């Protein structure tokens, strides 16, 4: 029987994306469709996606909420059924979706994502245009109050799943916002949404959701420790029986080296020799010359403390001095942007740096590089290493979260057994990253051995099939209870 599912999320690829959350929300729904789960996504109608609202049908007039008129528009685009929250006073503005033009969090983010959570709960309970979800699935802190609002209602509410994509972002706001958010003060306790005297969207959701998932088995275990739980470890230990770690996948249609329109040359594991045309184009893009024989390392990432790229800045000169090349695409912390620009200045013709967000270039980089670095201090799942493997670009990763769960280190045993897919290093230090880079340099020098690992990586399952089936089982179990 078809199960109706409502996603509540602040990002959804290919429409609006700042990171992996968008990829997951955009890719999982269509895969669930094949498993008899009909998914709709509640998403704010940000200015960045205003075009989606233009010919959309109004399916709900939600009156005045949080200071202005609110409507819900329905639109099917890119195979995804969207329920767009049209609230110009909160979403029709310049800047990024979370940050203003000065790069600072919007001062009314509690209202902006309070409204998302609230509409998620309202549609969950009452349905929209005759469509009533059996299960609600809230994503990250921005939808964290959805289970709280569902729990506050007098009428029966559908069961709710909450997924932690990154516990570093918790949505904590002053207790004085409780009134404007319409939260029941009875919930302002240790067992509710109170968190060290503040309101926490994520904690509230974690206390109230029927099931909690996170995006890899290792991260699920890590979250219950002080080192990774970021203050919420106690909450997760308390909810351990309802917590599952289910590995993210990637959209294997959008990320397919056999058909990717962003590549200058498509290829498969059987036509791996064609991959080099992309390396050539990439080197040209970054002004690194036409010699494709040295190994080309890459980074595609948000530039934040989490991603460990300060370690890359320390470790890269040693291999650059040995002839390696390096390209980076990313933006974020000014000191890291500066550090990589400075590295490019020190190694002209060997290092290329592009500060910004560029989807097409990200695809070309996955195809054109030989290896990609993901030296994260923590990484709930990580998608870049999955995309890299699919493109035969070997990931060099720290042993944490989903990175630990998805990459098989090219140590002697794994090479002999023919199952290696990349390089792992631990602990997360510049020294150990340097060792891994040296091992990659050495393996690259052995073309046959390198190609064998490339082929293994390309064969490694990185799609949603098995994880989507696990999610569907959770929904069906909840819908029956
Ligand atoms: P996170 O969600 O923590 O940023 P993930 O690895 O889960 O990290 O997902 C990051 C996603 O965003 C990947 O699809 C990656 O390719 C993409 N990405 C990151 N930075 C950029 C960028 N500057 N330009 C284009 N895509 C990027």
Overview in brief:
The chain is of the alpha/beta class and 481 residues long.
Could you characterize the architecture of this molecule?
The chain has 481 residues and is of the alpha/beta class. The protein folds into two domains: 3-249 and 465-480, Rossmann fold (3-Layer(aba) Sandwich), CATH 3.40.50.2000; 269-459, Rossmann fold, CATH 3.40.50. Helices cover 38% and strands 20% of the residues. It contains 19 helices and 18 strands. It has helices spanning 20-33, 50-53, 88-91, 109-126, 145-152, 201-208, 217-222, 226-229, 233-238, 276-285, 309-321, 334-346, 359-368, 384-390, 401-406, 412-417, 430-444, 447-459, 465-480; strands at residues 3-8, 37-44, 57-65, 68-77, 80-86, 135-139, 160-164, 172-174, 194-195, 198-200, 211-214, 243-245, 296-303, 325-332, 351-355, 371-374, 394-398, 423-425. The strands form three sheets. The chain has a nine-stranded mixed beta sheet with strand order 3-4-5-2-1-6-7-11-12, with helices on both faces. A six-stranded parallel beta sheet has the order 15-14-13-16-17-18, sandwiched between helices. A three-stranded antiparallel beta sheet has the order 8-10-9. Strand 13 (296-303), helix 11 and strand 14 (325-332) form a beta-alpha-beta unit. Helix 10 packs across helix 13 (359-368) and helix 11 (309-321) runs parallel beside helix 12 (334-346). The mean pLDDT is 97. The structure holds adenosine-5'-diphosphate.
């Amino acid at each position: 029987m078809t199960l109706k599912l409502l996603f509540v999320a602040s990002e959804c690829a290919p429409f609006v994306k700042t990171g992996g959350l968008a990829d997951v929300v955009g890719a999982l729904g269509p895969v669930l469709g094949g498993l008899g789960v009909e998914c709709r996504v509640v998403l704010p109608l940000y200015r960045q996606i205003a075009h989606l609202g233009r010919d959309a049908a109004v399916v709900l007039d939600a009156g005045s909420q949080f200071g202005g008129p609110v409507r819900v528009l329905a639109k099917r685009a890119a195979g995804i059924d969207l329920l767009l929250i049209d609230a110009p006073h909160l979403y029709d503005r310049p800047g990024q979706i979370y940050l203003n033009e000065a790069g600072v969090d919007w001062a009314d983010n509690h209202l902006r994502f309070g409204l998302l959570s609230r509409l998620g709960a309202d549609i969950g309970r009452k349905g929209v245009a005759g469509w009533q979800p059996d299960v609600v699935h809230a994503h990250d802190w921005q939808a964290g109050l959805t289970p709280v609002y569902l729990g506050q209602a007098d009428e029966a509410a559908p069961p709710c799943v909450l997924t932690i994509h990154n516990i570093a972002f918790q949505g904590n706001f002053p207790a004085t916002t409780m009134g404007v958010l319409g939260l029941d003060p009875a919930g302002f306790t240790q067992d509710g949404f109170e968190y060290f005297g503040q309101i926490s969207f994520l904690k509230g959701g974690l206390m109230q959701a029927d099931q909690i998932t996170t995006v890899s088995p290792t991260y699920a275990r890590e979250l219950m420790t002080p080192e990774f739980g970021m203050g919420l470890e106690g909450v997760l230990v308390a909810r351990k029986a309802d917590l599952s770690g289910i590995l993210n996948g990637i959209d294997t249609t959008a990320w397919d080296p056999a058909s990717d329109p962003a590549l200058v040359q498509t290829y498969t594991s059987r036509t791996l020799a064609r991959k080099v045309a992309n390396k050539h184009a990439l080197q040209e893009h970054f002004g690194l010359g036409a010699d494709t024989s040295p190994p080309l390392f890459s980074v595609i990432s948000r530039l934040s403390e989490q991603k460990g790229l300060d370690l890359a800045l320390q470790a890269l000169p040693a291999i650059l001095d040995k002839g390696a090349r390096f390209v980076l695409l990313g933006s974020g912390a000014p000191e890291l942007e500066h550090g990589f620009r400075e590295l490019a200045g020190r190694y002209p013709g060997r290092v290329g740096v592009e500060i910004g967000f560029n989807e097409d270039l990200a695809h070309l980089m996955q195809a054109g590089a030989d290896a990609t670095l993901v030296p994260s201090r923590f990484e709930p799942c990580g998608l870049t290493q999955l995309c890299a493997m699919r493109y035969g670009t070997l990931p060099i990763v720290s042993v944490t979260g989903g990175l630990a769960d998805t990459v098989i280190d090219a140590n002697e045993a794994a090479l002999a057994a023919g199952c290696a897919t990349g390089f792992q290093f631990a602990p997360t230090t510049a020294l150990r990253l340097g060792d891994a880079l040296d091992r990659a340099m050495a393996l690259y020098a052995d073309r046959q051995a390198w190609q064998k690992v490339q082929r293994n990586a390309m064969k490694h399952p990185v799609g949603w099939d098995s994880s989507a089936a696990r999610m569907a089982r959770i929904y069906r179990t909840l819908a029956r209870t």
